[in-house]
Amino acid sequence: MVSHEEDEEKAETGGRPKGGVMGSAFFINRDGYFVTAAQVLRLYKPNSDQMTAIIKKRDGERTIMEFDVIDKDDKHELALCRLKNFTAKIPMPP
């Protein structure tokens, strides 16, 4: 799940950050790169610390991590992103 925080407060309403957007994403490698829909990043401001991803683990636990937008293609509605300080905990295919 990808979340964009507009407000500095991390108030939550129904599991969704106040002033944010939600969308799904999937990992493409063990280095923390993931793909999401470009529309999820519609409020993204370059060079800001606003972008956080809520990672839901298999056991249901959630972790909030910051990420960078590597590239965004509005024509094809895709965005490539990378989690900051990510370490894969489960084996992934090379």
CATH superfamily name?
Trypsin-like serine proteases
Structural class comes to mainly beta
| Unreliable residue runs | 3-14
By DSSP (H or I, 4+ residues per run), the number of helices equals 0
SS elements, strand count: 9
Count of individual domains = 1
The 3D shape can be described as globular
CATH architecture: Beta Barrel
- In terms of DSSP E residues, the strand content is 35-45%
The largest pleated sheet is described as: 7 strands, antiparallel
| Oligomer state of the chains in this structure | single chain
Residue share in helices?
under 10%
CATH classification, class level:
Mainly Beta
Average pLDDT = 76
Examine the coordinates and then state which fold CATH places here, giving the name of the CATH topology: Thrombin, subunit H
- N-C termini distance: 23 Å
Question: What is the H/E string?
Answer: EEEEEEEEE
Radius of gyration from CA coordinates: 13 Å
Name the strands of the widest sheet in spatial order. 4-1-7-8-9-6-5
Q: How would you describe the overall organization of this protein?
A:
With 94 residues, this protein is an all-beta fold. The chain has one domain: Thrombin, subunit H (Beta Barrel). The chain is 0% helix and 43% strand. It is built from no helices and 9 strands. A hairpin with a 5-residue loop joins strand 5 and strand 6. The radius of gyration is 13 Å and the shape is globular.
